């Protein structure tokens, strides 16, 4: 969806301390076999800091950068992947209570690792639907420190890292312009993240640990064909997002994508850009871990504060989540942020 008057007016990334893979083994956090042969360098660990509290911290930092008072915010969206706190409770309203307050609607977005990018389209559509909606606060946060989550062997391509991010989306001004956001789905592949696990009783209620490779092993069908279908969907969405914006792959300065420890996976993600590794954010991401919905905005924050992108540059945000859900956004940098390293 092309937007003519939407801007990013605040951005923040809450990144906990990181431990190297060697330190993780020495500390007994994982087995050497769990991380053998991986290209990851370190993983961010939040310990016992709750995900919503990290989101509040990121949200307040983004609000401090923004020029919008709390009364301007017409909605809050909180993107999540894993457990936020008590069951039958709303983490998004907790984040709202401790950031913008007020009576605006507050919703949780469950689009997996594409959640933060998808939220840009949802929040942008909400703001432009009425003239009296100046701004939206979008947050994301996950803490994978949980006995039901296999942080160190939860996927075949990632180690889970903890983080929170926040964006202020504005109809008035900002350091970057939101040019276009597109999304798509492959619902026929929802079983990739379900495998043979029954829908009832729900896994967490019976203490079933999430180990995604085990679910994939339980799949029936051609897994190679599934991987190709995902690749096609990602590529088609990238080109659609570019075409709608009147841009070519060469017009994109950097791509803020999901964190992956495998060089080959990142090159596959960047295939529409000739697999140019330097165009992406692999070096940043493999020091962070896969943080769920926070990967793309954390990477964008890193590019902006490190002055790796400058005014006039176009940055693509690319996310793939369970479902399968795909989301792609293009932002154009208008002003430098204060230089600050993560």
UniProtKB/TrEMBL annotation:
Residues passing through the membrane, by range: none
Start and end residues of each Beta-ketoacyl-[acyl-carrier-protein] synthase III C-terminal domain: 242-332
UniProt keyword Acyltransferase, yes or no: yes
Superkingdom of this protein's organism: Bacteria
Domain Beta-ketoacyl-[acyl-carrier-protein] synthase III N-terminal residue range list: 108-175
Pfam assignment, any one: ACP_syn_III_C
InterPro entries for the chain: ACP_syn_III_C, ACP_syn_III_N, Thiolase-like
Entry keywords, A to Z: Acyltransferase, Cytoplasm, Transferase
Protein name as catalogued: Ketoacyl-ACP synthase III family protein
């Amino acid at each position: 969806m092309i937007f003519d008057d939407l801007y990013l007016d605040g951005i923040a990334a809450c990144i906990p301390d990181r431990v190297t893979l060697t330190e993780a083994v020495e500390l007994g956090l994982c087995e050497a076999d769990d991380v053998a042969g991986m290209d990851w360098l370190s993983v961010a660990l939040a310990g016992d800091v709750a995900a919503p509290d990290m989101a509040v911290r990121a949200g307040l930092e983004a609000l401090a950068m923004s020029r919008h008072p709390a009364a301007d915010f017409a909605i809050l969206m909180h993107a999540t992947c894993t457990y936020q706190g008590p069951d039958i409770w709303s983490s998004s309203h907790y984040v709202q209570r401790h950031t913008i307050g007020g009576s605006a609607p507050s919703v949780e977005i469950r689009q997996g690792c594409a959640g933060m990018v998808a939220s840009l389209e949802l929040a942008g559509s909400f703001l432009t639907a009425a003239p009296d909606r100046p701004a939206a606060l979008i947050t994301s946060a996950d803490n994978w420190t949980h006995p039901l989550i296999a942080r160190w062997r939860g996927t075949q391509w990632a180690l889970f890292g903890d983080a929170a991010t926040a964006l202020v989306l504005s109809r008035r001004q900002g350091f970057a312009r939101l040019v276009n956001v597109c999304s798509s789905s492959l619902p026929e592949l929802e079983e990739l993240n379900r495998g043979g696990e029954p829908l009832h009783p729900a896994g967490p209620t019976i203490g079933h640990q999430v180990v995604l490779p085990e679910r994939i092993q339980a799949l029936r069908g051609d897994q190679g064909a599934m991987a190709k279908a995902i690749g096609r969907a990602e590529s088609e969405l990238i080109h659609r997002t570019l075409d709608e914006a009147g841009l070519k792959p060469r017009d994109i300065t950097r791509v803020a994508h999901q964190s992956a420890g495998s060089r080959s996976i990142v090159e596959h993600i960047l295939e529409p850009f000739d697999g140019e590794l330097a165009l992406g954010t692999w070096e940043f991401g493999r020091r962070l871990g896969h943080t769920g919905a926070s990967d793309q905005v954390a990477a964008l924050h890193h590019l902006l504060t490190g002055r790796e992108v400058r005014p006039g540059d176009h940055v693509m945000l690319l996310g793939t989540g369970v479902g399968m859900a795909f989301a792609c956004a293009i932002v154009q940098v208008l002003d430098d942020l204060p230089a600050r390293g993560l």
